[in-house]
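Can't paste images in this forum, so I'm doing it all in text. The chain is below; anyone willing to post the predicted structure tokens underneath?
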Amino acid sequence: MKLVYGIKDKPGIPQLIVYGLQQLLAIMAATLVVPIIINGKANLTGEDAMSTAAALFGAGVGTLIYVLFTRAKSPVFLGSSFAFIGSMTSAFAGAVSVAAGYAGLILGAVLAGLVYVIIAVIVKFAGVNWINKLMPAVVIGPTVAIIGLSLAGNAVGDLQKANAGGDSRIAILCGIVTLIVTMLCSTYGKKGVKLIPFIIGILSGYALSAVLTLIGMATDNTAIMVTDFSPLTNLFADGFSINSIFAVPDFTFVTAFKGVKEIDFTYVSTLIAAYVPVAFVVFAEHIADHKNISSIIEKDLLEDPGLSNTLLGDGVGSMAGALFGGCPNTTYGESVACVAITRNASVATIITAALMSIIISFFSPFVAFVNSIPSCVMGGVCMALYGFIAVSGLKMVQKVDLEKNRNLFVVSAIFIAGIGGLSVSFGKVTITTIACALILGIVVNLILSKEKDN
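Text version of the structure:
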């Protein structure tokens, strides 16, 4: 794939702002939804609830730390990790108070981050050859494909969702328009348009959904109402004021500080059991993500800046993300797909997106605007994003000799386990579908590696 902007390229400031915004929009919905899910699972409401703005701030800080550790050589954005949702829920469930639960979020993220640090030290001394042998293209390729395919249900589910309670068919229409506009811009647009297809697609879908909703409100036709404007209207419900424009996010460490004294050994043991095993699972996904982005930019990131540095960036970035927003961070497939589709691998764009996420977290209207984007519109965009992740994995499989039985069995095992949704739980610890598929693929590949070439 010929890149428009390489890793070291620096577009002009106006372009950087637009490209950074696009990266931000690609990852923002998923980043913001994690604290919302935790609030529901832990029954947190009002002042106790986790802040979506703080999660956005934490993602920005975590990404900057990742860029620092990787010496600005890896064009990936870090966002709130879905893998740790169960761990975060356990942190609140085992705490004696909400404040202690917040302290648990930070301590749990530190424990998970330490796993990354320990693995990074091992890799620093042992090298990455063992990783390449353990996870060759025949294993990583279908695993990357499964990462995209496993998200297909989320994209289609969002595509059919009308946030204002309208007809799902109208929601699908808005989502498909978003998808088609995105594809047309990426395929037929001039250079400037090809670099921002997601922004144009999202704005087009949002405009259509907003017009239909306004018509529905005026004619009392609820069927065509698919946009919920309440995040915007609630912002100014009490009138216009400086507080409705700018607000300091409710950072996790502020509440956590009050609960530190309530943490005991039993609770720490709960956190260890909830976070540490998941960190090993996410490590496997870390490898897959970086193998994927390496194939896109045609440079092995496991060699330069090195797996030890990407792990340190991911681990320490996760700790920082939880310190501010409560959510451990992870490299985002949406970010990788955005790089692949726009062919913009400029790390300067990633840095800009991170800085924008930090600044925007204080700007309430923008956060409210993003929250008002209908799920169906984001579903249309995600069909392209998740699809590209899957196709990236299939491109890796192209390099594999599928005339050999051992390769066929490895790929088959990963695809069926991944698409079938295989997952295993041990108490509060769940080995995700992606991890199960990858582990099964590794085992099958090792068992059949002695097959003789005919």
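The beta strands are 78-80, 329-331, 424-426, 429-431. The chain is about 70% helix and 5% strand.
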